[in-house]
Write a structure and sequence with these properties.
The protein contains 15 helices and 15 strands. The chain is α+β, with helices and mostly antiparallel strands and 425 residues long. The longest helix has 15 residues.
Length: 425
């Protein structure tokens, strides 16, 4: 979730405008070892497709196949919804491992697509009168404002719109500073969310709140804590009961860094890092201990399938969970931060006006071992695409999947009228 990747993706997105079994402990370097040999083993890989698609949608399959094979991506997933009907739900595998077969029900880390999920939960609390967008975050969470009195001016709305004043282009991303925070506070690894908040509150903001758009993972972590404080429930419990269950989404769950749940794909990276789970200084495969996914719950911690995400996105087509006023708030222009070509960050969604009264909304996700995208188009099309590795080094850009899927959608001349929803939900 680097800032460069996030900003470049936003600019590139021109058009976008099963019950868990006992978890499995992951070997510290298993993912990295597989990734390091991935390129050399490409010639031995085989292509496998699972799931269902209605007639006339083969262009989506060929698009994902070309994309994955060009980048040697082992596992991928795509779901497409048109006007509320699920028309495609696929799992794709490009691997020499015959035991690896991605299903449409396989779970992936979705990284920052967790943010629209969190924003939806916050807007529901506002809708129910339990929270106000003007509420002060420091007051809600009891954060010290001694180091920077401007922290008193950070509101719930400013967190939702990335206007809180933290800027990882100036100061390092607080959610990836475990080693530094542990040292500064004199606490052992792994650090807690409370440790991160104490450390952050002892530092000055990079901008006055409300003046500068700067994408902030930390700000959304704080929203998770606000949800807990106001609702009296755990973040997970509130989201599942008020956001996911009303949409009959039951597979989604919070991920774990060192353990993989039943049906969860493996993650691949060529990078290693120092473990943030103990003080051993051990080098580990980056997706498996180079960061703390548990601390990232509200900004990057969810597991989901592609079709779970398209099902969740239906919240914003009206009906359950949020009313029309809340949906309007989600997509409203912020006080500042409108991009030069017109897109902006609303409340948990990137938004692009595409005509009078029409908008495309989307969110991407990028984390070591993960690349994801969820798109809602003005014409009733929604899709989500998930991969178990992301662009590293000189590999081809992963943001290319966005225009490629728009092209595949635009090439469909006659959309099928069936609905696969009952097959999976």
């Amino acid at each position: 979730m680097t800032q460069l990747t996030r900003r470049n993706f936003g600019k590139a997105a021109v058009l976008a405008g099963a019950g868990a079994a006992a978890p499995t402990l992951l070997a510290g370097c298993s993912g990295g070892a597989s990734a390091r040999t991935a390129a050399g083993a490409a010639a031995t890989r085989t292509w496998n497709v699972t799931g269902k698609a209605l007639a006339g949608l083969g262009g989506f399959d060929s698009t994902v196949k070309s994309f994955m094979q060009a980048r040697n991506i082992p596992c991928g997933q795509l779901a497409v919804v048109r006007k509320g009907k699920l028309v495609l739900s696929r799992g794709y595998t490009w691997s020499a491992d015959t035991g690896l077969k991605t299903q449409p029900t396989s779970l992936f880390r979705i990284a920052s697509i967790s943010k629209p999920v969190t924003a939806t939960a916050v807007l529901r609390l506002v809708q129910d009168g339990k929270l106000k967008l003007t509420d002060r975050v420091a007051t809600l969470l009891g954060l010290s404002t001694t180091a920077d009195p401007r922290l008193k001016d950070v509101t719930v709305l400013r967190l939702l719109q990335h206007l809180g004043g933290w800027d990882r282009a100036i100061s390092p991303d607080l959610m990836f500073q475990d080693l530094a925070i542990a040292k500064a506070l004199g606490v052992p690894l792994p650090i807690s969310q409370a440790d991160i908040m104490r450390y952050a509150s002892g530092r000055k903001l990079d901008h006055a709140p409300g003046t500068t758009y700067a994408y902030s993972n930390y700000g959304f972590m704080l929203l998770g804590r606000i949800i807990e404080k106001v609702s009296g429930l755990s973040y997970r419990s509130y989201v599942q009961s008020k956001v996911l269950t009303p949409r009959t989404v039951h597979r989604m769950r919070l991920g774990r860094t060192l353990y993989r749940t039943s049906g969860e794909v493996p993650y691949y990276s060529t990078y290693t890092g120092t473990t943030v789970f103990d003080n051993s200084g051990k080098k580990v495969s980056y997706p498996y201990g180079g960061f703390n996914l548990e601390n990232m719950d509200a900004h990057g911690g969810w597991l989901a399938t592609a079709m779970d995400l398209t099902r969740f996105a239906g919240v914003y087509d009206g009906g359950s969970v949020l009313n029309a006023a809340s949906i309007k708030t989600a997509f409203a222009k912020p006080a500042t931060g409108i991009n030069s070509d017109g897109w902006y960050y609303g409340c948990g969604w990137m938004v692009r006006p595409v005509g009078t009264g029409k908008i495309n909304t989307w969110h991407d996700g990028s984390l070591g071992g993960t690349s994801t995208l969820l798109v809602r188009r003005y014409d009733g099309l929604t899709w989500a695409v998930l991969f178990d590795q992301r662009q590293e080094g000189s590999a081809p850009s992963y943001s290319d999947i966005d225009p490629a899927l728009h092209k595949a959608a635009d090439a469909v001349k006659t959309w099928p009228t069936g609905d696969l929803t009952s097959t999976y939900f």
